[in-house]
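ERR on first pass: missing label on line 2. Operator R.T. fixed the label and resubmitted. Corrected input:
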Amino acid sequence: MTAILNLAIVLAAAPLLIGVINKTKALMAGRVGPPLVQTYYDLAKLFRKGTVLSSTTTWVFLAGPAVSFVVALFAALLLPLAGTAPLAFPGDMILFVYVFALARFFTTAAAMDTGSAFEGMGAARELTFASLAEPALFFGFLALARVSHSLELSSVLAVSGTAWRSSTAALVLIVASWFIVLLAENSRVPFDDPNTHLELTMIHEVMVLDHSGPPFGLVLYASAMKLFVFAALVAHVIVPRFAHPLTNVAATLGAVFAIGVLVGLVESVMARLRLVRVPQLLITASLVSAFAVVLVLR
Amino acid sequence: MHAADTILIVLLLANFFILGTANLRASIRVVAMQGVLLAILPLFVETKATPRLMLVVGATAAIKGALIPGLLLKAIRDVHIRHEVEPYLGFIPSLFLCAIGTGFALLFADQLPLAPADHGSLFVPAAFATVLAGFLVSTTRRKAISQVTGYLMLENGVYVFGLLLYESMAVEVGVLLDLLVGIFVMGIVLNHIQREFSSLDTERLSRLRD
Amino acid sequence: MSAQLIVLGALLCFASALVSLVVPRRTQVLTAVIQVSGGIIGLAGCIAGFRGAGAALRLPWQVPMGVAAVRVDALSAFFAAPVFLLGVLGAVYAERYWPSSKPRAAYVRCFFGIATGALSLVLVAANTLFFVALWEIVALACFFLVGTDTADADARGAAWLYLAASHIATLTLFGLVTLLHSATGTWSFVPLSRAVASSDTGSALFWLAIVAFGIKAGMMPFHVWLPAAHAAAPTHVSAVMSGVVIKMGIYGLVRVLSLYPAVPDWMGGTVLTLGIISSILGVAFALAQHDLKRLLAYHSIENIGIILAGLGVGYIARGHGLVMIAMLGFAGGLLHVWNHGLFKALLFFGAGSAIHATHTREIDRMGGLARRMPMVAAGFLTGAVAISGLPPLNGFVSEWLIYVAGFKAVVGPMRGGWAWLLLLAVVPALALTGALALACFVKAFGAVFLGNPRTREAAEAGQAPASMRLAMVPLVLACVAIGVVPVALAPLLSRIVAIASGVSMSLVTTLAPLQRIAAPMAFVLAITVSALVIRLRRAPRTVTWDCGYARPTARMQYSSSSTARTLVAFFAWVMPPSVHAPGQLPLFPAEAALSTHMPDTVLDRGLLPALRRLQRIAGIAHYIQSGRVQLYLVYLGVTLLALLVWSLR
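pass 2 clean. output:
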């Protein structure tokens, strides 16, 4: 039951999150911008279109979008959106991170399948930056696990008010580093600009250059859902756990959209970093969450 | 004692001769003579002439006087060498060294911890001097045949030492066997050296080092 | 029963070696048949041995001062099972990879049989001298196998390096066995008394074990022989060497440490630290390789690091009474022994097919092979996903167990000290390793099988022969099975951890949720991908978008070095590459060449220069050896004279 609820929420709300971000950016730039529901229209359009495939590609090319879509849904099942996750078990945090790694494997393999230098470049960058972002996630999980004395994502993310009061510094650090990881993993400024289509400056966009039609729709949907899941992860740390499941859902959604607005603000205010600076920022994020672990252990 | 001392003096003189000559056939013959002299030396030292003693004397004389020199002369004849080429240490200096060595041996032989009966006899200095002379020949000559000659002189010196233990002839017999085996091995080695380098010059052997 | 079957299996392997030497070329398949039957019988013996009843056997053959005693307990059976399995699959693979028509085919089969037979017996040897004798036989057989291609100077060098390293290990092992005998009084693996274990003897035994078994296992910094040897050997031999021979080192370490009633923290900490170093640096070196087999060899070093990290976690936790954490750590490490054997062999078989078709080991001369050999590509992909530790395959299960151990350590009460901090350090270390391994295998799989072929050989590569493909199938099934049904192995893992450390807990409740999730996840993934592929199989095809370049070539694709460049540059402090770049380029376009190569830091920048300097210093003593007999006689004479004078004083 909770499973269907989780899936429905994610499927329904993820494109809206993209819309919120785009609207924020537009408003900050003094434009009216696309409507909030634009992403739904885009998805509908893409699913109706035909597909053209490259003659160089194999089945791995189509496995990329398929796997990332399934993985995003699966990760949604691990999140305690309504109070408890449908698939919760001790140690599910590790599964959470690793299913996204699985999606990354197939997305980058699909990129290399095209035999193009552009996609290869995007794949190389994606692999490098994700390797540096994973330790930050794990440090955060270590600290939260200690604070909540549990290994289940549902309990770990139910950070109560008392926990906030006792380990404020550590939790703030975790939220900050996880926000940076969110930006990195979802190819947002300052790591990658989702609006640019200059191949030499893209990471995620360039990897999906050759997709078209429904597979591209799946790619778009999957990246929206991934952004939603990561935002929900950060939201859960900030928002306390309420007793009633629907209140929980409402609060989490509210926090998620707030984070979306924040992402939009960051994207409007900052420029994309030079690529050599990206590893430095990611290592900073890892060090910040490592410091959070140290604070929690004292 | 008189006869024994005479033989030992002749032994020492033979050392000088071998060191001073460049003629390989002469040096082999003189070493053979040394051998025969030493073979009959026990007859003058031992008091009783047992059959066993006669057997050892006869065998030693035959081997040292005939068999081994015969082999060596045949070896020289096969490779057509007659003269020792310029040795590392010249003939005059090696004679000089031998003289000094013999002198030291004569003067300091008594310093060694020997049985009281042997003090003052010529055996120990003669033995030492012969060993030294053999050592000099092995060390300063270039031809491989000279190594054999030096070895023979060395064995002669050890033989004289062995005579000091004249209760049993075990040392002499041991030395004899030793000598026989050694000569055979050297003969084979000389053959191989000759085949490999077409010369018996030991200079060529240094090519074999690592 | 299990002991008899295992010994019979090993003897059949030896028999196949003999047969390969005497049988004429046309009937060489008989060798494979005997080897396969030996493997199957041995595998049956191992499965019987899983039950745990320690069967013992005394063979009627005297080893000098020892006894050919064999004892099968669950731990030995656990380690021996992959040996027999890979023996069977290797023989099947070699049928077409190194057919009888190729030179030295009989030689390869002979030593393969000897190696597998001796290896299975090493794992069940109960007498330490028997153990050492068999160990040496395995090392020698592997030496001969590594040096199969005598025309290749690299292969010869690799073989000599392997022999040197193996013999240092054997020498240290002799020391270990002798010290063990003086400590316990018998030539068997009997537990040490508490007094001995905590004394200097106990410490010395540990260090000897680390050196001897570490060299064999390819732990850093003793790994110098591994990349060259595994790259030079024939592929099915590399699969066996990477898959099971290096596990011989792990088995030895586990066996020796199981004799200690209590493993002190510093020992567990050493194992854990060496494991973490090996895993991170192993994968870093692997990223920089462009020779496919060398890349796989460095990954073996990485996975040995993961195994050691798991074992280290177990030992430290056990020392502090944290039983569940210890169980998880040991189970993760030991399960990874099987997992690595399975997916590494799978990867080597796939690589071998690619190399067989393109006649080169260079990744940058391959490309687009997935269209020419789809089954091999699918198998290699499975291996790549497994080695990156991704769900729902087996690599994830063992790494997950170690992760949970680390997390439980942080959640539990703080038991203090640097050892506990090491336990925590496992989590980020494993995370970094996993991410880097993923990067490396996307690079390898992408450059070899995906994209466009870079050379003519790659473009014209044919499908791999049936037996080579067939050999990969059981490994794929095993990887999927262990990933999807891990609970089935829980009782066996509990039993072997109990033997290795005395800790025993059930893992069924821990692994059950993974099992509940993995199967549906795999199913959904498979269905979705297949649905999409089938739905779009008639989609129109065109060229890859090329931004308007008139003539893109296959060489413009991202190569293996380009994909890994940033990550390799990260690790430049520990592995400086050697780059041959063109100097000043002229004004007008001219031909230029660029090549980069990653020498092994420990070997090429550390060990070899030091040895060369030592050789130069030792050369000073050369002057003593003049080659002249006369001079040697003078040495003798002077020495004797000196002795005489000295004795007369």
